[in-house]
Design goal:
This is LysE family translocator. By secondary structure, this protein is mainly alpha-helical. The protein has eight helices and no strands. It has one domain. The radius of gyration is 17 Å and the shape is globular.
């Protein structure tokens, strides 16, 4: 089972990264405003499946390296830590603009919504790099991989679903909040600080 201390660090880290406005969250908000929350759930299904696929692929790759090339895993930890630090600095420097998406049609089919969510999740190279960098520090090589992965994936799925639901139901009010003043900038800075912290922890662990 996943160590409770690691879980306590992973929860807020992934939550703030997930809730920070990006393509998936902005897509959920746009669809929630244009076609309604209920139909937006179809997009969420595709997005969650895509995120699960990315996370599973990342963990399988990390596990393979961890088991067969332990020295290379140490290198990966350093590279991952430095990358997380870089991402954290970039989030601090971000100007906090909402992602732009084309207007959505209310006539779009449920299958198209699922496809849209799935493609949005798996087509983002930053999502892949983020999963590969973030997951290794929360995996204990001395414990069984499957229970740890199930726990991490459960947190990821729950956090993504809650975040997208908040964006979809928040609609115009959430958009006003996010575009007002420095709200997005401070969300980016909180998430960025967590990224830098986890990066240092990963390098020093």
């Amino acid at each position: 089972m996943l160590d409770l201390t690691l879980l306590a660090v992973f929860l807020p880290t992934f939550f703030f990264v997930s809730i920070t406005p990006g393509m998936c969250m902005t897509l959920a908000m746009t669809l929630g405003m244009s076609i309604g929350v209920k139909r937006t759930f179809w997009m969420m299904i595709g997005e969650l499946v895509g995120v699960a696929l990315v996370a599973t692929s990342a963990v399988m790759g990390v596990a393979s390296i961890m088991l067969n090339y332990p020295q290379l895993f140490e290198v990966l930890k350093w590279v991952g830590g430095l990358y997380l630090g870089y991402i954290g600095v970039q989030m601090w420097r971000a100007k906090g603009k909402m992602a732009k998406l084309d207007g959505q049609s209310s006539s779009i089919s449920n299958s198209a919504l699922i496809s849209q969510g799935f493609i949005t999740a798996i087509a983002n190279p930053k999502g892949w790099a983020f999963m590969i960098s973030l997951l290794p520090p929360f995996i204990n090589a001395d414990k069984a991989l499957a229970p740890q992965f199930i726990a991490l994936l459960s947190v990821i799925m729950f956090t993504e679903f809650v975040s997208m639901t908040a964006y979809a139901t928040g609609g115009k009010s959430l958009k006003v909040f996010l575009t007002k003043g420095d709200n997005i900038k401070w969300m980016n800075r909180i998430a960025g600080s967590l990224m830098v912290g986890v990066g240092f922890w990963l390098v020093l662990s």
